[in-house]
Amino acid sequence: MEIIYQLAINGWSKLLEWGKKEKNQERLVLTCFGISLIPLLILSFYNHPAMDDFNYGVLTRWAVEAHSGLGCVIPVLKAAVERAVHIWNVWQGTFSFSFLAALRPSVLTEKLTFIQTFILLGVFVTGFWYFFQVVLHRLLGFSRAVASITVCVALTLCIQYVPYGVEAFYWWNGSIGYTGLFAVMLLMFGLILSGMQDKKISWKRMVSLVVLCVILSGGMYPVALLTGVLLAMALLDVLVGKQYGRCLKLQILLLNVIYYAGFVLSMIAPGNERRQRFFVPDTPFGAIYKSYLECLAYMREQTNAVIILAIAGLFLYMLYQMGSTRFSFGCPLLFTFVTYSLVTVMWVPGLFAVKFISGGRYYNILYYGMVLFYVANAIYYAGWLRRRYEACTEPAQSFFRSAKSVLLGTAGICCVVTGMVKLDIVRDLEEITTATALKSLVYGEARVYHEEMKAREELYHDPKVQVVEVEELTYKPELLYWGTLTTDPENSQNQAMCRYYGKESMVLLGSEETEEKQESSQ
């Protein structure tokens, strides 16, 4: 027993020593984060197109069928542009979103649907990763390892507790315009902040930023409005800042001109006026006022014990790491107000146009904004507190150092008590996105859904079958199913699928019709 005890003690000591190294901490966090994504990627192989995927992708699908090989590239791009112009005229002005929605990878074949999750998660992680590396490493001076650990915390909270996972990483049409473009926005401002740090933007990077400005200016309005506000703030900063040269000022001005030209083009679309006839809009000031209130209520509703504990842990971690940055972190209350206001910006378009937030995909980006607000303020208040500590006299600093163990112990006890009192096992742990994906995989729901959808798609692609009748699905996995055919053949969704697959009629059989069909087959 003594030998086992000594081995355990030695092993624990070596583990603690290994964990003290920053690089090892980074490797551990990255490994855990990567493992958490594996079930989500595996589940993507059971995914299938749904809902507006057919409506937005109909012309590109026809272009693929009419051409073969690389010869379909130009026709497919033309079809995507044609679809975007049509949507701009009849439904909404978000031209770049319509273009991207029409270029759904699975228009080539439903077998490629899995790649959409890889793309969406890849864009999401890349946008967050680059933005955090620029802000924390380049601007604030933290090590790359600290930046990596911090972004993993933010990404984990965003991915695992996203309100509607199917509309975040599986349904192409619902995700690319919200989750996708939100990440693209972070990538663009990472590039801009990096250029402002260097006091110049290279021509290659400038070309990339122009392309991103065009994409975001024609995106969904919550992200588009926030992008416009942030670009205006960047322009104000470089115009006022004496440290910036004339070239950089002209470059940021040019980006603003290009962006707002695209944004105006999106706003004046005839489709916006037609769509707005179905709703009664609010006043601009009323929408802004309600945004501040609704955002606060939403944050109270969505903030669970896991998020509280994660942000508390990040605060303590950043408090320890603040010695590597000399940023002043002044006016924390002003910082909180500004960052909260930026989150509320995304609420304004929905509350202004229709007086409510429509669609889970919209709530997803509001949730991402909430997480970024928490992370940013945890870092900022840790820095502010560290600067206050450094401004104390030596006796005061000595007292705080001697009380370090007591303070950390108290913080630990508070976290444990919070976890015991507030942690909801079902909601906070079992319902995380990875757990939901694992349940669909382990229980076989995803496999059955996949087999039944493949059987349906065989009918869809059979030229001899012009009247398609399908039975209800056995399972509808939470992260995969987002609606297909309905029992009403005149339903707009059914009609869109008819055009997409070239059928006369497509309908979902009701329970009585299914029983009659089974009896006749017997």
Q: Please tell me how large the radius of gyration is.
A: 26 Å
- Enumerate how many helices there are, as a single number: 25
Query: Biggest sheet, open or closed, and with what strands and sense?
Result: 2 strands, parallel
Low-confidence stretches: 512-522
Q: Structural class from helices and strands?
A: mainly alpha
State the distance separating the first and last CA atoms.
70 Å
> How are the strands of the largest sheet arranged?
1-2
Share of β-strand residues: under 5%
Shape label: globular
**Secondary-structure element series:** HHHHHHHHHHHHHHHHHHHHHHHEHEH
Helix content: over 70%
Note the main attributes of this structure.
522 residues, mainly alpha, two-stranded parallel ribbon, 25 helices, 75% helix, 2% strand, globular, disordered C terminus
